[in-house]
Amino acid sequence: MTTAPNPPPTDDPGGPTASPRPRSVTHVVRVLLALVVITGLAAVLVRVRQDEVVRTWAEGNVAARKLLLEGGVEAVEASPIVPSFVPLAIVFFVVFALLVGVLLAFFVEGHEWARLSLAATAVFGILAAAVVLRLGLPALFVVVSVLAILLCLVLLFLLWRPDTNRWFREV
């Protein structure tokens, strides 16, 4: 003899009263994953194109520019004044990926503060990518920065779509 399982209580978030997630919420997840991938790509680019990053930095720094003119990139890299760009890029990527992971977990559960935090992260991402564009880095960095800006704008659009707003009110 088989019996039907008991229905979940109505106050259960996964129960019959919960509204299904709109596609905009699913798209937010995808855009955030793309942003994490782009950030990881930027970290890899910093490692692969390290000489160009150091050269660009040195051209904007008075003391480093003198070293660059006298001994080239090797002299600048051997100097104690050059920042460690690769570890910085890796740490930024790891922190960003973890932050997005945590905020995303709360966002898909309907926590409004996570949506606000993701929006603030997107605005910060736009500003950070715009700063990178102004540095005069090689074309690959420009492409990555433009992609990051576009993804952040799409993210902001998706976070505040009417169906996303409605879902947050119902959850």
Automatic annotation (TrEMBL):
Keywords: Membrane, Transmembrane, Transmembrane helix. It comes from the Bacteria. Residues 1-22 are annotated as: Disordered. The chain crosses the membrane at residues 28-48, 85-106, 113-133, 139-160. This is Uncharacterized protein. Residues 1-11 have a biased composition (Pro residues).
